[in-house]
Amino acid sequence: MTIPVPIRGVVFDFHETLVTARDPGAWVEAAWRHLGRDASPAAALGPVGFERVRTGIAQVWRHAAVIDPDGGRDLDPGRHRAVFQQVMELSGVEEDLGTALYAVMTRQWVPFDDVLPVLAALREREVATLVLSNVGIDIRDHLDRAGIAALVDDVVLSFEVGVVKPRPEIFARALARLRLPADEVLMVGDNARDDTGGVALGIRTLILPPVTGPVRGLAAVLGLVDGAATGRAGVCGAGVDGAEADGAGADGAATGRAGSSGAATGWARVDAGTR
User: Fold this and answer.
1) Model's pTM, two decimal places?
2) Order of strands across the sheet with 128-133?
3) Which residue among 128, 212, 269, 273 is least enclosed by CB atoms within 10 Å?
């Protein structure tokens, strides 16, 4: 009989795990105001033009990954801005508007509704937390504004440490900051390529399915933490803003399900450690 290793630390990806830009149209409008233009962007650009910009900004990081497959944008602030501008140009967005969209970008990122409650619950359980992000800019001010900074213990950013996910080295940095062994840490992310790099080190990893609603399904994390602490399989996580989760047992499968609050039903895979 194997005994599940307790989870004493949780590492969270940032974008589309903790925060999202919920309304691309509002992002365009914020950039328009930043430029000091009088008319609304919808009126000035027309329906087709406005939709072109809105669609471009909604897909900006997906397209950036195609243009910059090696992730250089996440190692250098200048490259980060340049790749963003290149995507906007290819989407038919004028240069001034593209610059403004970048300028107001971090203000468009909002936490999912269950982020702060889950982080607070982890703190109550004395579980250490860390944000690990592939990003070419310093997001600490945003974490502070969003209320996330007060609830996490540390932040590791790719452009500061000179390495990007999925390389194991950046996950090793996170472990060093947490001062925990790999088998006592859970990684939570949304990207099955980037966020699984720690598996090689022995980090259990939860990949969340995409959602369209305001709840990310992070109650699954509490289910896994509580399940590992009690040694029970299939532990139901504590509800957070209507979300429910089935935790993982020794077999390592985890399924996040949502209640009435709107998170999408999906599945995730966990490499469950045992000792």
Assistant:
1) 0.84
2) 154-157, 128-133, 9-12, 185-189, 204-207
3) 212
